[in-house]
Design goal:
alpha+beta, about 20% strand, single chain, 16 strands, five-stranded mixed sheet
Length: about 375
């Protein structure tokens, strides 16, 4: 079976519900299967709003969703009722996988004869004991440093202090039954109510390999491994039996068999979206498929201060940035292809409503207000 780049993009927009035209309950957002990354002011709430969740539901996220550090150590939103299953789903597949996910923290641990998987459990146990009430990350880090041995610690030049390696700290938090309080900066950790530990089994829709193939497929094992920070060989060992091969513009990829009909026959997805910088649609590890032009990719995926993406009828046609001043919010667009002004303004108004601000119009880079 051969499919085009355009078919892949249309498929992803549909399965990620970016074609939303009506209200959607938070629990019904498909992207929550893999986690909705909540980085920056236009993170989780804006991603949910773009998938049909109304502002009123976003006001009380904590009752339905839990925020936790998970994949790549990034904060992600999940259905609160599934958080124990999520904890199991995002755990490393093996010791080798755990070592890769913690990066440079693995070397001193192994030199001391400590398995990384064991180290994560040790850190989690101490974190659980420290957090008896909501605790700011810095306070947690200071307390944790005083409890851990040298292989767990490093000297941080920017902080001019010795503390726990960052990735073990983040990846152990959910193991400890700790969630993040949304909207806190610096982050505040608190205990997950009625926590009894990670679940013993992972339901199919939360399996991270399956979820990637469903929401960001067709894909290769290397794409999935890049998203998880896992070794490719580990991903291959957990490859779904019902993944079927497809040809995407001459490249061998895979998609779940149940998703193949949508991939083959899906119509064009009309509409305009201002996607946040870390929206799931932009998290696919095949950036060259999303944006074929290398110079445009460099504009969109910068290391610091990443902009959002303007998507029109399934294609990324430019970047955008929010400009907040007091209680007013404007949107500045750098268009590669001119987007529909009215549709962009409507998205800007919705973004301002999600932030609880007044919309101040759309500007183009280097140009005055267009509305």
């Amino acid at each position: 079976m051969a499919v085009s780049r355009q078919q892949v993009l249309r498929y992803r927009l549909r399965v990620q519900q970016l074609d939303a035209t009506g209200p959607r309950a938070i629990d019904d957002v498909a992207a929550l299967d893999l986690g909705v990354q909540d980085t920056g002011p236009d993170g989780g709430r804006w991603a949910l709003a773009n998938r049909g969740v109304e502002v009123e539901q976003l006001a009380d996220l904590g009752s339905r969703l839990a925020l936790a550090w998970t994949l790549r150590g990034a904060p992600h939103l999940y259905r609160r009722r599934e958080i124990a299953e999520v904890a199991a789903a995002v755990s490393p597949f093996s010791e080798a996988d755990a070592a890769k996910r913690v990066f440079d923290a693995a070397k001193p641990l192994r030199e001391a004869g400590i398995d990384v998987s064991t180290a994560l459990d040790v850190v989690a146990g101490q974190m659980r004991d420290i957090v008896r009430s909501p605790t700011v990350k810095g306070e947690m880090s200071t307390a944790l440093t005083g409890r851990l041995e040298a292989p767990y610690l490093r000297y941080c030049r920017s902080c001019r202090a010795t503390h726990t390696y960052e990735q073990p700290f983040r990846l152990a938090a959910l193991r400890a039954g700790l969630e993040l309080v949304p909207g806190t900066s610096p982050p505040v950790l608190t205990r997950i109510p009625r926590w009894t530990g990670p679940a013993e089994r992972v339901p199919a829709h939360l399996d991270v390999v399956r979820a990637y193939l469903h929401l960001l497929g067709p894909a290769t094992p290397a794409h999935v491994a890049g998203y998880l920070d896992a070794p490719v060989r580990e991903v291959k060992q957990h490859w779904p039996d019902d993944a079927v091969e497809v040809d995407v513009d001459g490249e061998r990829r895979w998609v779940l068999d149940t998703d193949r009909p949508q991939l083959e026959s899906g119509p064009t997805v009309p509409g305009t979206r201002l996607l946040g910088p870390f929206d799931l649609f932009l998290q696919a590890r095949d950036r060259e498929l999303l944006v074929p032009d290398a110079s445009r990719r460099r504009e969109l995926w910068v290391v610091l201060g990443r902009p959002g993406a303007v998507v029109v009828d399934g294609e990324i046609v430019g970047t955008w940035r929010p400009r907040a001043s007091g209680r007013r919010l404007a949107v500045t667009v750098d268009a590669w292809v001119p987007p529909p002004e009215t549709a962009v303004a409507e998205q800007g108004e919705q973004l301002a409503a999600v932030r609880g601000l007044t919309f101040a119009g759309v500007t183009s880079s280097g140009v005055g207000p267009t509305r």
